[in-house]
Amino acid sequence: MHHNTSTRLGNGNQPLHTGEKKGGQTPQRNASSLSEDIENGRSPRGGTRIVIKIGSNVLTRSDGKLNVTRMSALVDQVVWLRRHGYEVLLVSSGAMACGRSELQAQRKLDSVEQRQLFSAIGQVKLMDLYYDLFREYNVHIGQVLTMKENFATRNEYLNQRACLTVMLESGVVPIINENDTVSVTELMFTDNDELAGLVAAMMNAQTLIILSNIDGLYNGNPKDEGTSIIPIVDYGNDINQYVQATKSGFGRGGMKTKAHIATKVAEEGIKVIIANGQRDHVLTDLAERPSDVPHTEFRPNPNAASGIKKWIAHSESFAKGRVVVNEKAAQALRGERAVSLLPIGVIGIEGDFEEGDIIDVVGPDGQAIGVGRSAYSAAEASKVMGQHDVKPLIHYDYLFIE
What does the pLDDT look like over 136-151, one tens digit per residue? Predict the structure, then answer.
């Protein structure tokens, strides 16, 4: 098997942080510097910030019920990471599995009803288990249930970030999940990999770890003889030829989803690791002996985007409309220089969007160019389309080129 020889979970040179002992107190920081720390990718508590996504296939047994032993082992490892300089946010699946084991439905339910019922019941049990397991170490946890719409506007995005920031500052482990009771199918996250990617970008994490029931990204079908794990995906490499589109057990997203999310998050300057959460000591081994653990590491973009561009990059699925640009504008936007999209280069406006909404930018051939925040409503944009000497339709600070 082809093993990885990568560095520790973060940048590899952070000092160890031992702010946590049984019965001990977590050091506090002046809250005034926190937003600046988050924007600059620094942890309020001085350590390396990591987001760990624990998939339903990691927490679920073959009979569909929760694997409490596995859950306990992962909590032990998270506590170990906190004691060794890592600041951890958890994105945890498992609510549906918890709910299924608690209640036998009185009638046949459709898929939406099942998700709403079992996740509502199961989320309580899931958090209760996490509470009991972390309490053994005197570690506080906090529940954060969110929806895709909460990432769609900048204000809601910043409100979520502020909530998670104050939790981290207070030494609390945030445990994040999608609010399945109110999320409608069309607006749901692809799965919790997408949610974890959004959280990692929003909180300027150094590393995102996606734990599934497979060892990483393979260079073919994992069942075929001679297939091996791809240990490192360098920034900018195309991995589509290797990706299997199959699902991985109980979750909604397969390896194709994971690879797509990993590539996008790495584009934003965050290291991504895909590893097998069913392996014993996977998190501590990744921190101390990564070369001994089969996994795939997506190396980050060395020139990371700003915080607002990270938000915009993840906002393509929230686009309220799109603008079509001419060939000259398309070439300029795809060029080396950072340029704004001026109305003179626009040849078409589609959709009903307002000022401040996210819109797609496409070339004359319909090929995607980027996504950005519109400075005009659709009606206003139609009026200034093709004109000189007016403000940009999308300023380059709010434009993410794909």
Answer: 999 999 999 998 888 8
Please name which of 81, 73, 7, 1 lies closest in space to residue 278, comparing C-alpha atoms: 73
Phi-psi region of 268 (alpha: psi -120 to 50; beta: other; left: phi over 0): alpha
Tokens of 201: 């970008």
321-325 and 232-233 beta bridge pairing? unpaired
Alpha carbons 76 and 49: distance in angstroms, whole number = 18
How, if at all, do strands 368-373 and 358-362 pair?
antiparallel
CA distances from 16 to 10, 25, 73, 78, 299 (A): 12, 17, 22, 15, 23
pLDDT tens digits, one per residue of 73-116: 999 999 999 999 999 999 999 888 888 888 777 788 887 888 88
126 and 98 in contact (C-beta within 8 Å)? yes
Distance CA 95, CA 99 (A): 6
pTM: 0.75
